[in-house]
Design a protein that fits this description.
Helix content is 28%, strand content 26%. Helix 1 packs across helix 2. It has a single domain, classed as P-loop containing nucleotide triphosphate hydrolases (Rossmann fold, 3-Layer(aba) Sandwich), CATH 3.40.50. It is α/β, with parallel strands linked by helices. It contains 4 helices and 6 strands. A 6-stranded mixed beta sheet has the order 2-3-4-1-5-6.
């Protein structure tokens, strides 16, 4: 939660954050932290697994939370108008981004979560694009201090 709130302080309109990891690794918890940092009450934030998308418009910046776990292939979302969200005025958080394949934007922040124990996780950050490389540099500075 704390890390998600820290991420939210640096995220801007049009940013895309991809969350990968096995079931139970904490993807939705991290998304809740981001939502909290944007001013969304965390009790409202639940996994969008069964609806694909949850929108949180009453936030400092609108948050679009996707979960593509149930998608069989990238073509299944072609008609959803996902581009309006990925390239829109809000922040997009995507769980199970590997399901999108070639539909992912070129630039995004990738966070991979790994289960190390019942209450212990490891997170690996990867930047795709200049903006996110700079973003990670500033985030690492925040974490060190």
């Amino acid at each position: 939660m704390h890390l998600g709130r820290s991420l939210a302080l640096r995220l801007q309109r049009g940013d895309v954050v991809c969350l990968s990891g096995q079931l139970g690794s904490g993807k939705t918890v991290l998304a809740k932290g981001i939502a909290s940092g944007l001013g969304v009450k965390t009790a409202r934030v639940v996994s969008p697994t069964f609806v694909l998308l949850r929108e949180y418009a009453r936030a400092r910046i609108p948050l679009y939370h996707f979960d593509f776990y149930r998608l069989a292939c990238a073509g299944d979302i072609a008609g959803l108008g996902y581009e309006e969200y990925f390239y829109g005025d809000g922040i997009t958080v995507i769980e199970w981004p590997d399901r999108l394949q070639h539909l992912l934007p070129r630039d995004y922040l990738q966070v991979s979560l790994f289960i190390l124990g019942p209450k212990k996780r490891s997170l690996d950050f990867k930047a795709s694009g200049k903006r996110y490389r700079e973003f990670l540099g500033r985030l690492y500075e925040d974490i060190r201090h």
